[in-house]
Amino acid sequence: MGLLQHGLMLTWETARGRAKLGERVRLDRGVVENAAGLAELLSSRTDSVKAAAATDERLARVVEAVFRALTDVGARKFAVRRPCAFRDLCAIAGTTPEEVRAVVDVFRAPRVSFLKRYPPTPIVEKTQIDISDGALIRCWRTLGGGNGWLKKEFRDGIIWRTLLDQAENIGDDKLSLLSEAATEVRADRLRLKLSAGPGFAIGFCL
Description:
The protein has one domain.
């Protein structure tokens, strides 16, 4: 759902909620102005949906894993949508299909529509899950902000690709090993990821 569409929807829902029974619904710009613009409105709204989906710490990590998996950060650090099969989301989140489906259902619900496929399309293993609009990536500060999930995704991606390159080159160059200090840093990071439980895997969908 685009940024303007989302702003209009929230404006309508707020105005309709204020109107008394039988009274004409009157739209105004107050919802957008109070939120300091459409981008902040979308970010705040997405945070509220996240709170509804992440009812405990475990599900909060699943939410993060899902959105990191559904977003790709290129070499120029431009973030784009990355559709992913539902079964792959479950593998990345490291948890059950039931938990991932519960999260996805909250974000694809009517009047939310941040993820698709939209209801009533059933979700099966091969169903492609996708962020509905790039505006969500650009505006949701939890995802794309200065210290958001995408920054961690980009950093983890660099580390992962570096390790892959070194692993591939070790056959040709037996001296192509990590230093003792670098090994300890990578090991600490891996232990941290593993101890985090669901969502520790880096979100690469091939």
